[in-house]
Amino acid sequence: MKDALGAPQSLLILGGTSEIALHTARKLVDDRVRRVVLAGRPSEGLDRAADELRGRGAEVEVVGFDAAEPDTHEKVIDGVFADGDIDVVLLAFGVLGDQEADEQDPVAAAKVAQVNYVGGVSAGLASVKALRRQGHGSLAVISSVAAERARKANFIYGSSKAGLDAFAQGLADKTHGTGVHVMVVRPGFVKTKMTQGMPDGPMATTPDVVADGIIKGLRKGSTTIWVPGQLRFVFSALRHVPRPIFRKLPI
Amino acid sequence: MSDGPSAELFPAARRKALTGWGRTSPTFADVVVPMTREQVAAAVQRRTERGVIARGLGRSYGDPAQNGGGLVLDMSGMNRVLDADLETGVVTVEAGVSLDRLIELFVPFGFFVPVTPGTRQVTVGGAIGADVHGKNHHADGSFCDHVLSMDLLLADGTVRTVTPEDDPELFWATAGGMGLTGIVLSAVVRLIPIETSLVSVDTDRTRDLDEIMALMAETDEKYRYTVAWLDCLAKGRNLGRSVLTCGEFARLEDLPAKKRAKPLHFKSGSLVTVPDLVPGRLPNKFTMGLFNELWYRKAPQHKVGQLQGISPFFHPLDAVQEWNRAYGKTGFLQYQFVVPFENEDAMRTIVKTISDAGAPSSLTVLKRFGPGNRGFLSFPKPGWTLTLDFPTNTPGLSALLRRLDEIVLSNDGRFYLAKDSRMDPSDLAAMYPRLEEFRAVRAKVDPDGVFVSDQARRLGLA
User: Fold this and answer.
1) Does B103 reside within a domain?
2) Residues paired with B320 in a beta bridge
3) Fewest C-beta atoms under 10 Å: which of A185, A243, A250, B459?
4) Domains contained in chain B, number
5) C-alpha dist (Å) from residue B115 to B21, B112, B405
6) Integer CA distances (angstroms), B344 to B17, B231, B338, B410, in order
7) Neighboring chain B residues of A136 at a CB cutoff of 8 Å
């Protein structure tokens, strides 16, 4: 249960090795979170993350979860909720793909959409069903500023996030007034292992800053958060740039 | 054909958001308003695996009368007086009868409720579940000390009449048990006799905390009702300046001649209702500081024998309906703790910490408790209790309260579950040493955890 100051006690991370999610988990464990469930494909990284959170005083469970297998999602998520209420679900899985290579490999490109969008749809719906049954809780969906307008430089990833983003917005409105809070998180360029080796984008940020934004948004019950916040205005402007110009922008 | 609710007809459940009086942490539950015992039993039978909890008038500040995803029984429809002995003042009432109703009905016959908290808009069932206390704790104990018997609907659907003599375990697990042992259907309560409906009040204003604590230690024995209001924003040599009010029900001969004709006159009601429009930033340290300054200044330095009505003396805030809205949509929380007399220095540390932080609490109340009772989770124990209201959007509130938590915990103090909305679950066992006995009784009467609330889930109470 969240307390009067909005501090949650339990957390489910779908995509348990996500750096943004783990930074969020650390901060929440340092506050009142005692139960953390890391859902992801079994890996050393997942076990390491679990151990680290245990070291901070949380009870951590690791459960097998594959974003690319939508038919398994509801069973895994229901199993987690059966062991006790979950106050916050972070939908944090996602792959970046390799735009240039994926353009030549339609199956690899479809895989990006399969994980980021299709997986998000089934995991998002399964989470919201479980949250509605307990009558409270939040689902934070990690989208991206790339969802705001498709760019030629990363439209495969961007379009998959655009689908996820639109899905989460609709889900938020559908669940309004049921006790379930759905929040879309739109970070800009985040310096993580996923973006390692890439040149920093403009207004690059860190997982730690995104985590602060998520925690503040959860407490306030925000529907959409941008990290850093100024990106909201940058992308509002970019959205309205005419196509002939937008196409030539070096972004 | 009758339009009234029949015993067989199951009232429809409505899914809605519930919060406590502090208006924080809403959760959604199916709410049913049963009108009869049969309907209560039928509703409990139709629960889901999310369980059921009884709710009264929603005056607990946090989440004990919420049950996210489950069933909540709004007991305010169970509001009949079943029996009353006007010689002895022993009344049998359904659990949803409010103290307001009891006062309205029985003051004209010369009886007052044995214990009343700062609002009379609480039900008898809620008063038992929280084992509420009032300004007379040092003299009369808490509410359950005046309950002779109660009918409790248990998880298996049976109704048991529970008295402190025949079934002390279940009685004292239910007294202060936050509704987790069963649903109180009715109770037999002993009222106290009064000659008039007026209270003879002595008021004293003190300059600082040491003065008020010394004065209260000295005067407590002389009065049935005592409480102090404290300005927790005052600093320096004014730290903890207070207004102490002490009272006794006036005797007939204390009344002026013109009031003797109707000595037991009482009229309930309120003056105004706060609209749900107050911006959340309005209660801040400047507005509260001003409010506290005025409240302190308007109190007389020293006044004896002033006659006050029941409402202004016991329930001043009931004059303003929905006063919780004054804190805006973000809500507020109430922080009430007790520390034993031998650790009263902790009280000084805490008042200084709050004053230094400039956290705005408007109606800070200081009181001395007498001996506690046998309720496993009953709050009062001998010592000083302080009650503070904070808007939840106060900057730095979480960190401040954690500092206070540490002081309360390390000084053998504890928090009041009816007010709690944020305590650390790991502090519970140290604060309530009889927690395990409570859990043992509950495991016996409700092994499947049918009776459960958001608070029970948050704190791992049962």
Assistant:
1) no
2) B272
3) A250
4) 1
5) 20, 9, 28
6) 40, 18, 10, 12
7) 25-28, 68-69, 454
CA A1 to chain centre: 21
Distance from C-alpha of B67 to C-alpha of B27, rounded to nearest angstrom: 7
Output the domain CATH number for residue A178.
3.40.50.720
Q: Which domain holds residue A56?
A: 10-246
**H/E segment holding residue B243:** strand B242-249
Is the CB of A5 less than 8 angstroms away from the CB of B392? yes
Cβ of B397 and A32 within 8 Å? no
Catalytic-labelled residue, pool A117, A157, A226, A235? A157
Q: Are A141 and A124 in contact (CB under 8 A)?
A: yes
Statement: the pTM of the whole predicted model exceeds 0.80: yes
- Minimal Cα–Cα distance from B163 to chain A, Å? 34
Task: Name, in order, each residue with C-beta under 8 angstroms of B61's C-beta and a sequence gap of 6 or more.
Answer: A4, B20, B21, B22, B333, B334, B418, B419, B420, B421
Q: Is residue B54 part of a domain?
A: no
Tokens of B149: 């018997």
B225-240: pLDDT as tens digits:
999 999 988 888 999 9
Burial (CB count within 10 angstroms: exposed 0-12, middle 13-18, buried 19+), residue B284: middle
Q: Considering the domain boundaries, does residue A251 fall inside one? A: no
B49 is a domain residue: no
Q: In CATH, what number is assigned to the domain containing residue B231? A: 3.30.70.2520
- Is A2 inside any structural domain? no
- CB proximity A219 to B under 8 Å: no
The one-digit pLDDT tens for each residue of chain B (462 residues) are 344 444 455 678 899 999 999 999 999 999 999 999 999 999 999 899 999 999 999 999 999 999 999 999 999 999 999 999 999 999 999 999 999 999 999 999 999 999 999 999 999 999 999 999 999 999 999 999 999 999 999 999 999 999 999 999 999 999 999 999 999 999 999 999 999 999 999 999 999 999 999 999 999 999 999 999 999 888 889 999 999 999 999 999 999 998 899 999 998 877 788 888 877 777 788 888 888 888 888 889 999 999 999 999 999 888 888 888 888 888 999 999 999 999 999 999 999 999 999 888 877 999 999 999 999 999 999 999 999 999 999 999 999 999 999 999 999 999 999 999 999 999 999 999 999 999 999 999 999 999 999 999 999 998
Residue B410, φ and ψ in degrees, nearest 5: -75, -10
What CA–CA distance (Å, rounded) separates B376 from A230? 54
Query: Which structural domain, as residue segments, surrounds residue B306?
Result: 198-422
Q: What are phi and psi of A38, to 5 degrees?
A: -100, 115
Question: Is residue A5 a part of any domain in this protein?
Answer: no
Query: How many distinct structural domains can be found in chain A?
Result: 1
Amino acid at B104: E
Determine the distance in angstroms separating the CA of A64 from the nearest CA of chain B, rounded to an integer: 26
**Is A157 known to be catalytic?**
yes
Say if B163 falls within a structural domain. Answer: no
Residue carrying the six token digits 């959007």: B393
